[in-house]
Amino acid sequence: METLALEVQLQTLPNSPGVYQYYDKNGKILYVGKAKNLKKRVTSYFTKRHDSHRIGVMVKKIKEIKHIVVASETDALLLENNLIKKHQPRFNVMLKDDKTYPWICIKNERFPRVFPTRKLIKDGSEYYGPFTSFKTVNTLLDLIKGLYKLRTCNYDLSEEKIRNGKYKVCLEYHLGNCKGPCEGKQAEAEYNNNIEAIRQIVKGNFKDSLQQFREQMKAHAEKMEFEDAQRIKNKIDVLENYQSKSTVVNPKITNVDVFSIISDEGYGYVNFLQLSHGAIIRSHTIEMKKKLEETDEELLELAITEIRQRFSSNSKEIYVPFKVDAGEEVKVTIPKLGDKKKIVDLSLRNAKYYRQERFKQMKIVDPDRHVKRIMAQMKEDLRLNVEPRHIECFDNSNIQGTNPVAACVVFRNGKPSKKDYRKFNIKTVEGPDDFASMEEVVFRRYKRLMNEGEELPQLIIVDGGKGQLSSGVKALETLGLRGKIAIIGIAKRLEEIFYPGDTIPLYLDKKSETLKIIQQLRNEAHRFGITFHRNKRSKTALNTELEEITGIGEKTVVELLKQFRSVKRIKEASEKELAEVIGVSKAGIIYNHYQSKK
Fold it and tell me: Assembly and interactions (predicted)?
């Protein structure tokens, strides 16, 4: 895919947390950064003056911006670390070393130790994290230490060695920090119960501990021990902001490829996430044009082969949202819940964002491409001979048969053209007759367009079922336009689309853009018609209420309403108040009229 101008790329970035990557003209990665808001952060590089010469040089070299959207700032921080370590970009200074973010380890041993570490050793131990701050790790370990007495020594506490009395309790036992399992002073079952409670804490389930801390803080505050209260408050803040799970780094997941797809009528958008030792090290999305009516499964199978070849992936397992055929050597997993499902959801989120950005970019670069695509789709969906670039939709409005009116709204290239909207007072029909009203307005509209030499629409939509459609067809027939303009009716209940002479309605896919545009037309015609109808009714109400008074004209009514805002207030006004607005003579007429009715 051709690289778009930087201005276009910047305009379509999302306002979401994530990681951005800058590439030069040769496709070499220059820099990886994290952001709370991708659009604001990336745009700032191109709008601010940079004090650093290094950043200034880098900005001049940027030709392409890629990004990965994640769920939170913490995930952005961890993903940035993964990508910098993997790609070693030239303009990154920090995080290039082999240091990683810390984990909390529950060691795989009898009477397990709990400690912080930067190394993941595959020996069956449990690792929780990683944590973007050692402050969080220390707060959690302080909490654990305060609640449970655990050993810190690295002895091999096998049953045999304890029974033979190989070890003696150390200072930690005498200080009350350990219960002495090395001398058999603490049962293994009791110790393991404590470990299970610690697992819950590092997973983020520390509601009871937080309550305990709040009570301690309150007690310190009541005793005026404000420094101690503040120290505990800091711990509460850290725990409340603690995020136990990261989507982008998970030690339980090893080397896998993750694929997801989102598609529309013409294209499929496939996202690929590559995981190495549980950490995301690559995200890539491709746009695939549908040649025929390919299903999502077919498109995804093609994409999996192409992407795995392009990035020389040898992973033996892939995660996908539905069943695909990826060959005999690859294990296909369709996660339903848990950490694996979260990874697939993250991939899907990136595919969705990519699709949105491509739409926005095309609207900027080639505005007509988007319109052409929709028009071609409408022509195909509605079985038309030409693209419906100019559509008109009619709707009748009458409430209990009063003030019958109709509205005609006009869409050009799929968008409302409000200057072309027209409203009609029904002239030839007595009472509430929707069919006759529809025939009248369709006839009047196109007779006028023909007389004035104006262009006719390619498609007419009437709001209603077979009856209204037949009335519209009758009007076109009278004008000699039947067969020259396509006309359809849309019934409200099930969004059925009727064609002249066809008893079986057409049902469009509920998600299709064609149906959305037809619904928008229908709703707009309804809104426009109802507004006109309401205005007409209220004006009629005014006429009957005020203008029936002999000697009072429209101008006087308007003046009064400007001042008093409603007929009710005019009725309740004193003669003096009325005179200040319309003069003594007319004020007397109105005042006496309402007094005589009391």
Answer: Interacts with UvrB in an incision complex.
